[in-house]
Amino acid sequence: MNLADARSALRDARRVAVLTGAGISAESGIPTFRDAQQGLWARFKPEDLASPDAYFRDPALVWEWYAGRYRDVMAAQPNAGHDLLARLERQKEGGYFLATQNVDGLHARAGSEKLVELHGNLTTARCDVCSQVDDLPAPADFTPPPVCPRCGGRMRPNIVWFGEFLPEQALEAASDAFAAADVALIIGTSGMVYPAAGLAFETLERGGTVIEINPDETELTPRLSFSLRETASRGLAALMEG
Ligand code: NAD
Ligand code: ZN
Q1: Residues with CB under 6 A from ligand 1
Q2: Which residues, 6 or more positions from 241, have their beta carbon under 8 angstroms from its beta carbon?
Q3: Please, what is the Cα angle at 75 between 73 and 81, to 5 degrees?
Q4: pTM over 0.90
Q5: 3-29+77-119+166-241, what's its fold?
Q6: Is 90 exceeded by the pLDDT of residue 193?
Q7: pLDDT in tens, 57-110
Q8: Across residues 125-133, what is the average pLDDT?
Q9: Counting atoms of ligand 1 from 1, which one is nearest the CA of 122?
Q10: Active site residue 107
Q11: Domain ranges of the chain
Protein backbone atom coordinates (compact mmCIF):
# COMPACT_ATOMS: atom_id res chain seq x y z
CA MET A 1 0.00 0.00 0.00
CA ASN A 2 1.28 3.52 -0.82
CA LEU A 3 0.19 6.98 0.31
CA ALA A 4 -2.37 7.34 -2.49
CA ASP A 5 -3.94 3.97 -1.52
CA ALA A 6 -3.97 4.96 2.15
CA ARG A 7 -5.68 8.26 1.31
CA SER A 8 -8.42 6.59 -0.71
CA ALA A 9 -8.89 3.89 1.94
CA LEU A 10 -9.43 6.59 4.58
CA ARG A 11 -11.67 8.67 2.30
CA ASP A 12 -13.87 5.67 1.41
CA ALA A 13 -13.99 4.14 4.91
CA ARG A 14 -17.44 4.06 6.47
CA ARG A 15 -16.00 3.24 9.89
CA VAL A 16 -12.77 4.69 11.21
CA ALA A 17 -11.13 3.95 14.57
CA VAL A 18 -8.16 5.92 15.89
CA LEU A 19 -5.66 5.26 18.70
CA THR A 20 -3.35 8.06 19.83
CA GLY A 21 -0.39 8.17 22.21
CA ALA A 22 1.97 10.75 23.66
CA GLY A 23 3.39 11.54 20.18
CA ILE A 24 0.30 13.45 19.05
CA SER A 25 0.75 15.90 21.94
CA ALA A 26 4.50 16.35 21.39
CA GLU A 27 3.77 19.21 18.96
CA SER A 28 1.81 20.95 21.74
CA GLY A 29 4.97 20.88 23.84
CA ILE A 30 3.81 18.07 26.15
CA PRO A 31 6.77 15.75 26.66
CA THR A 32 6.42 12.00 26.27
CA PHE A 33 6.56 10.09 29.54
CA ARG A 34 10.29 9.41 29.64
CA ASP A 35 11.15 12.92 28.39
CA ALA A 36 9.07 14.37 31.24
CA GLN A 37 11.55 13.09 33.82
CA GLN A 38 13.81 16.13 33.78
CA GLY A 39 15.12 18.71 36.20
CA LEU A 40 13.94 18.19 39.76
CA TRP A 41 12.18 14.97 38.85
CA ALA A 42 15.06 13.29 37.01
CA ARG A 43 15.91 11.14 40.02
CA PHE A 44 12.47 9.47 40.01
CA LYS A 45 11.46 6.67 37.67
CA PRO A 46 7.89 6.96 36.32
CA GLU A 47 7.02 3.84 38.35
CA ASP A 48 8.07 5.71 41.52
CA LEU A 49 5.48 8.41 40.92
CA ALA A 50 2.69 6.83 38.88
CA SER A 51 1.78 3.82 40.99
CA PRO A 52 -0.55 2.95 43.88
CA ASP A 53 2.52 2.14 46.01
CA ALA A 54 4.05 5.55 45.45
CA TYR A 55 0.77 7.24 46.39
CA PHE A 56 0.40 5.10 49.52
CA ARG A 57 3.96 5.94 50.58
CA ASP A 58 4.01 9.64 49.79
CA PRO A 59 0.75 11.14 48.48
CA ALA A 60 2.10 14.71 48.75
CA LEU A 61 5.04 13.89 46.47
CA VAL A 62 2.81 12.20 43.90
CA TRP A 63 0.40 15.14 43.96
CA GLU A 64 3.22 17.64 43.58
CA TRP A 65 4.32 15.88 40.40
CA TYR A 66 0.80 15.65 38.98
CA ALA A 67 0.03 19.26 39.89
CA GLY A 68 3.06 20.30 37.81
CA ARG A 69 1.98 18.21 34.84
CA TYR A 70 -1.56 19.60 35.20
CA ARG A 71 -0.21 23.18 35.07
CA ASP A 72 1.83 22.34 31.94
CA VAL A 73 -1.14 20.78 30.18
CA MET A 74 -3.46 23.70 30.96
CA ALA A 75 -0.84 26.11 29.60
CA ALA A 76 -0.61 24.10 26.34
CA GLN A 77 -2.95 24.22 23.34
CA PRO A 78 -4.25 21.45 21.07
CA ASN A 79 -2.23 21.31 17.82
CA ALA A 80 -3.13 20.74 14.16
CA GLY A 81 -3.11 16.96 14.70
CA HIS A 82 -5.81 17.15 17.40
CA ASP A 83 -7.78 19.57 15.18
CA LEU A 84 -7.60 17.28 12.13
CA LEU A 85 -8.94 14.35 14.16
CA ALA A 86 -11.87 16.47 15.36
CA ARG A 87 -12.51 17.33 11.70
CA LEU A 88 -12.30 13.65 10.66
CA GLU A 89 -14.96 12.83 13.28
CA ARG A 90 -17.32 15.41 11.73
CA GLN A 91 -16.61 14.07 8.20
CA LYS A 92 -17.36 10.47 9.17
CA GLU A 93 -20.51 11.38 11.09
CA GLY A 94 -21.43 8.26 13.12
CA GLY A 95 -18.60 6.12 11.75
CA TYR A 96 -15.78 7.33 13.97
CA PHE A 97 -14.21 6.38 17.29
CA LEU A 98 -11.15 7.75 19.09
CA ALA A 99 -9.28 5.99 21.90
CA THR A 100 -6.37 7.84 23.47
CA GLN A 101 -3.67 6.75 25.89
CA ASN A 102 -3.02 10.42 26.67
CA VAL A 103 -4.15 11.97 29.92
CA ASP A 104 -3.76 15.60 28.82
CA GLY A 105 -7.38 16.29 27.78
CA LEU A 106 -6.23 17.96 24.52
CA HIS A 107 -8.48 15.86 22.23
CA ALA A 108 -11.60 17.01 24.07
CA ARG A 109 -10.39 20.61 24.01
CA ALA A 110 -9.90 20.33 20.22
CA GLY A 111 -13.56 19.23 19.86
CA SER A 112 -13.35 15.43 19.67
CA GLU A 113 -16.55 13.99 21.14
CA LYS A 114 -16.60 10.24 20.51
CA LEU A 115 -13.58 9.76 22.71
CA VAL A 116 -12.42 7.36 25.40
CA GLU A 117 -9.42 8.18 27.59
CA LEU A 118 -8.01 4.75 28.36
CA HIS A 119 -5.50 6.00 30.96
CA GLY A 120 -7.66 8.64 32.65
CA ASN A 121 -7.32 12.40 32.68
CA LEU A 122 -4.91 14.76 34.45
CA THR A 123 -7.52 17.49 34.76
CA THR A 124 -9.76 15.48 37.09
CA ALA A 125 -9.38 13.79 40.48
CA ARG A 126 -11.16 10.81 42.06
CA CYS A 127 -12.14 10.35 45.70
CA ASP A 128 -10.16 7.70 47.63
CA VAL A 129 -13.26 7.00 49.73
CA CYS A 130 -16.38 7.26 47.52
CA SER A 131 -14.90 7.33 43.96
CA GLN A 132 -16.57 10.63 43.06
CA VAL A 133 -14.80 12.24 40.06
CA ASP A 134 -14.42 16.01 39.98
CA ASP A 135 -12.64 18.64 37.85
CA LEU A 136 -9.55 20.17 39.45
CA PRO A 137 -9.78 23.89 40.16
CA ALA A 138 -7.93 26.23 37.77
CA PRO A 139 -4.15 25.80 38.23
CA ALA A 140 -3.82 29.21 39.95
CA ASP A 141 -6.40 28.19 42.60
CA PHE A 142 -5.20 24.63 43.09
CA THR A 143 -3.38 23.42 46.19
CA PRO A 144 -3.14 19.63 46.33
CA PRO A 145 -4.55 17.36 47.55
CA PRO A 146 -8.11 18.09 46.41
CA VAL A 147 -10.92 17.31 48.84
CA CYS A 148 -14.02 15.39 47.74
CA PRO A 149 -17.06 17.68 47.31
CA ARG A 150 -19.36 14.80 48.28
CA CYS A 151 -17.75 13.17 51.36
CA GLY A 152 -14.75 15.32 52.27
CA GLY A 153 -12.31 12.46 51.59
CA ARG A 154 -8.87 12.89 50.03
CA MET A 155 -8.87 12.66 46.22
CA ARG A 156 -6.22 11.02 44.01
CA PRO A 157 -5.20 11.80 40.42
CA ASN A 158 -7.79 10.23 38.07
CA ILE A 159 -5.11 8.29 36.21
CA VAL A 160 -4.64 4.60 35.48
CA TRP A 161 -1.36 3.88 37.25
CA PHE A 162 1.24 1.16 36.68
CA GLY A 163 -0.25 -2.11 37.89
CA GLU A 164 -3.87 -0.92 37.63
CA PHE A 165 -6.58 -2.13 35.25
CA LEU A 166 -7.81 -0.08 32.34
CA PRO A 167 -11.46 1.03 32.57
CA GLU A 168 -13.32 -2.03 31.31
CA GLN A 169 -16.18 -0.33 29.47
CA ALA A 170 -13.87 2.08 27.66
CA LEU A 171 -11.62 -0.76 26.58
CA GLU A 172 -14.58 -2.82 25.35
CA ALA A 173 -15.93 0.11 23.37
CA ALA A 174 -12.50 0.63 21.80
CA SER A 175 -12.15 -3.06 21.00
CA ASP A 176 -15.59 -3.15 19.30
CA ALA A 177 -14.80 -0.02 17.29
CA PHE A 178 -11.45 -1.38 16.09
CA ALA A 179 -13.00 -4.74 15.19
CA ALA A 180 -15.66 -2.97 13.10
CA ALA A 181 -13.31 -0.44 11.48
CA ASP A 182 -12.61 -0.40 7.73
CA VAL A 183 -9.59 1.78 8.51
CA ALA A 184 -7.72 2.24 11.80
CA LEU A 185 -5.10 4.92 12.48
CA ILE A 186 -2.37 4.38 15.10
CA ILE A 187 -0.79 7.75 15.83
CA GLY A 188 2.17 8.70 18.04
CA THR A 189 2.32 5.57 20.16
CA SER A 190 5.31 3.32 20.62
CA GLY A 191 3.00 0.31 20.40
CA MET A 192 4.92 -1.62 23.02
CA VAL A 193 2.21 -1.42 25.61
CA TYR A 194 -1.18 -2.95 25.68
CA PRO A 195 -3.72 -1.97 24.35
CA ALA A 196 -2.09 -0.40 21.28
CA ALA A 197 -1.07 -3.68 19.72
CA GLY A 198 -4.29 -5.49 20.57
CA LEU A 199 -6.48 -2.84 18.99
CA ALA A 200 -4.52 -2.75 15.73
CA PHE A 201 -4.84 -6.53 15.41
CA GLU A 202 -8.61 -6.43 15.98
CA THR A 203 -8.85 -4.43 12.75
CA LEU A 204 -6.27 -6.42 10.78
CA GLU A 205 -7.78 -9.79 11.68
CA ARG A 206 -11.11 -8.73 10.20
CA GLY A 207 -9.55 -7.56 6.94
CA GLY A 208 -9.38 -3.84 7.75
CA THR A 209 -6.53 -1.49 6.92
CA VAL A 210 -4.26 -0.14 9.65
CA ILE A 211 -2.22 3.00 9.00
CA GLU A 212 0.48 4.20 11.39
CA ILE A 213 1.70 7.78 11.74
CA ASN A 214 4.98 8.03 13.64
CA PRO A 215 8.35 9.62 12.78
CA ASP A 216 10.06 6.45 14.05
CA GLU A 217 9.59 2.78 13.33
CA THR A 218 7.71 0.95 16.11
CA GLU A 219 7.17 -2.63 17.25
CA LEU A 220 3.91 -2.58 15.27
CA THR A 221 5.31 -1.29 11.98
CA PRO A 222 6.15 -4.66 10.37
CA ARG A 223 2.58 -5.91 10.90
CA LEU A 224 0.63 -2.89 9.61
CA SER A 225 -0.78 -2.03 6.18
CA PHE A 226 1.10 1.25 5.81
CA SER A 227 3.33 3.55 7.89
CA LEU A 228 3.76 7.28 7.39
CA ARG A 229 7.12 8.45 8.78
CA GLU A 230 5.81 11.88 9.74
CA THR A 231 4.77 13.83 12.80
CA ALA A 232 1.11 13.48 13.72
CA SER A 233 0.03 16.81 12.22
CA ARG A 234 1.94 16.39 8.95
CA GLY A 235 0.92 12.77 8.56
CA LEU A 236 -2.76 13.53 9.12
CA ALA A 237 -2.58 16.45 6.72
CA ALA A 238 -1.00 14.18 4.08
CA LEU A 239 -3.80 11.62 4.54
CA MET A 240 -6.72 14.05 4.70
CA GLU A 241 -5.83 17.11 2.63
CA GLY A 242 -4.70 18.06 -0.86
P1 NAD B 1 5.55 6.71 24.21
O2 NAD B 1 6.23 7.84 24.91
O3 NAD B 1 5.85 5.31 24.57
O4 NAD B 1 5.76 6.83 22.64
C5 NAD B 1 5.57 8.04 21.98
C6 NAD B 1 5.65 7.75 20.49
O7 NAD B 1 5.38 8.97 19.81
C8 NAD B 1 7.01 7.25 20.02
O9 NAD B 1 6.81 6.09 19.21
C10 NAD B 1 7.54 8.41 19.18
O11 NAD B 1 8.30 7.96 18.06
C12 NAD B 1 6.27 9.07 18.72
N13 NAD B 1 6.37 10.51 18.41
C14 NAD B 1 7.24 11.43 18.90
N15 NAD B 1 6.97 12.65 18.38
C16 NAD B 1 5.90 12.48 17.55
C17 NAD B 1 5.15 13.36 16.72
N18 NAD B 1 5.42 14.68 16.65
N19 NAD B 1 4.11 12.86 16.00
C20 NAD B 1 3.81 11.53 16.06
N21 NAD B 1 4.49 10.65 16.82
C22 NAD B 1 5.53 11.12 17.55
O23 NAD B 1 3.98 7.06 24.36
P24 NAD B 1 2.73 6.11 24.48
O25 NAD B 1 2.82 5.04 23.47
O26 NAD B 1 1.57 7.02 24.47
O27 NAD B 1 2.87 5.44 25.93
C28 NAD B 1 3.30 6.20 27.06
C29 NAD B 1 2.29 6.29 28.20
O30 NAD B 1 2.55 7.47 28.98
C31 NAD B 1 0.88 6.44 27.75
O32 NAD B 1 0.21 5.36 28.22
C33 NAD B 1 0.30 7.73 28.37
O34 NAD B 1 -0.75 7.45 29.26
C35 NAD B 1 1.40 8.30 29.17
N36 NAD B 1 1.72 9.70 28.73
C37 NAD B 1 0.76 10.58 28.34
C38 NAD B 1 1.11 11.86 27.89
C39 NAD B 1 0.03 12.83 27.48
O40 NAD B 1 -1.07 12.72 27.95
N41 NAD B 1 0.34 13.77 26.57
C42 NAD B 1 2.43 12.25 27.84
C43 NAD B 1 3.39 11.33 28.26
C44 NAD B 1 3.02 10.06 28.70
ZN1 ZN C 1 -15.80 11.20 48.35
Answers
A1: 21-27, 30, 32-33, 101-104, 119, 188-190, 193, 213-216, 218, 231-232
A2: none
A3: 65
A4: yes
A5: Rossmann fold (3.40.50)
A6: no
A7: 999 999 999 999 999 999 999 999 999 999 999 999 999 999 999 999 999 999
A8: 97
A9: 40
A10: no
A11: 3-29+77-119+166-241, 31-75+122-159
